[in-house]
Write the structure tokens for this entry.
Amino acid sequence: MTTYSVLVVGMGKRGMHHAANFNANPRFRVAGLCDIDPARLEAAAAKLGNPQTGSDAGALGREVRPDVFCFCTLPGLRIPMIRAAIDAGAKLIAFEKPVALTSAELFEIRRLIQSAGAKAVVSHQHRYGVHYRKVKEIIASGALGRVHTVYGTATGWMTHMLSHLIDYTRWYNDNAAATWAMAQAAGRIKLADNHPSPDYIAGFVQFANGVRGIYECGAGAPDQPEVAKWWGKCRMGAQGTEGFAEVLTNGGWRAVTRAGGFQSGEGAMNYELDMPPYIQDMAAWLDDDRQPHPCNLEQACQGAEIMFALQRSAAEGGQIDLPLAAGADEQAMLKAKVPDWPARASCESNRKEFGL
């Protein structure tokens, strides 16, 4: 079997998760590591077999010529990293969500990758969690009857969390295309964050198969008091004519169906369990074009367009048609239009996290 070489850029927490799991998988060889912090880079290299290192991703990429170019950097660096990966000749580019900060950037990223003929994977790896998969199994079995609604809420702010909510609920809805979106937004504190977001955004999505999507992110999103970890207070699921099934990121799963009554089970976000199959599916896709990665770029882009349509609606009003006809700068729209008064928090933990 082919062993694929990997360059990982960014040796923070997520970069180390990726690098360690590539290193642990016999289908991959970590050939290079990159970070602008020399001490962090040296410490990472010592744990990963001392591959080539450098502080310039483009230069190191041209030297290493990796099969896989993986970068785990802040969202404002997407296009420079994509260009570096293509210049290095990477067959597969793996990077963190969100895909982009604006739809204009999204369209350029998609164009660059498609023009290069490269594969790309976006890190929506929570779907590998046993509790996420159990909910998908219940929905796919038909136990909910006709599914009419999918939904997702997260107390974390939009640019951190909304792409997760959309990606997994689209999966629960068989990746149906969306036809329009409408939303409102409030609060300006997190617009200055390195994951810039309104403090609260909530909206609706109409899918082509008739299913309605309902989403909330941020200060006004509902608390999940059964979950202790604040970043894990995320709830995603589906409702049908005969029941519902939902997952809590750090609180297991639960369902009610006509045939099964109330059911529940354990599960929590766990990188040690979720990352290995996410990495293994990259090898499968590199081996065979007929086995696209579940987190492939095209699916991530469809989710991202929904996310940007919600932002456009929050800024401009009205329903926004999907797919988007052209790119725009949704960040500028939000900064210009979100009202200058505080968002209202749904619970005390949200109030503290948002400084309200």
